[in-house]
Write a structure and sequence with these properties.
With about 160 residues, this protein is of the alpha+beta class. It has five helices and seven strands. The strands form three sheets. The protein has a three-stranded mixed sheet. Strand 1 (about 35-45) and strand 2 (about 45-50) form a beta hairpin. The longest helix is centred in the N-terminal third of the chain and has 27 residues, at about 1-30.
């Protein structure tokens, strides 16, 4: 019993830290909120949460443009080997999609690593949370496609056949 109490207390402290850090990041502009609408999809006896977001593509393009601008600046200054230029390059890779993709889910007790064959199926991206039952789609048309396809098939489409 004592173990579950200490776990609950540390979870509470962790949640407070996450909430405080998120509030500070929102206030500084380092974190931008994503407006979504929640929908539920049942598939294979599992209830998935699908969040519809229309502004993700704009945010991704903004990130690509910022990273590309930083790299252009490095090239103009002829300082491509500097740590800040390497970070800009890594941000650009992340913004356009890193080819060595996997999904990672972890708790204090277990970890799941799912190698991905691809980052998305058609226009629907899959993050690690998809394997925990939470999917984010960019638009109502993506939601319709997800409903037609089914979340379980979507997960099969982005992973390797074993």
């Amino acid at each position: 019993m004592e173990s579950s109490i200490s776990t609950a207390a540390s979870d509470s402290a962790l949640w407070r830290t996450v909430a405080e850090t998120s509030a500070a990041a929102l206030a500084s502009g380092a974190l931008q909120p994503i407006s979504t609408t929640i929908r539920f999809i049942e598939d294979g006896g599992v209830r998935f949460i699908a969040r519809v977001a229309d502004n993700l593509e704009r945010k991704r393009l903004d990130a690509v443009q910022r990273a590309a601008g930083s790299i252009r600046s490095c090239i103009r200054r002829r300082s491509t080997s500097s740590p800040s230029c390497r970070q800009s390059y890594l941000r650009l890779l992340a913004a356009v999609g890193n080819p060595r993709a996997y999904n990672l889910l972890a708790t204090r007790d277990w970890m799941l690593v799912v190698p991905r064959a691809r980052e998305s199926w058609n226009s629907i991206s899959v993050s690690a949370l998809g394997f925990a039952g939470a999917l984010l789609v960019r638009s109502e048309s993506d939601l319709s496609e997800l409903q037609r396809l089914g979340p379980m098939r979507l997960l099969r489409e982005v992973t390797f056949n074993v």
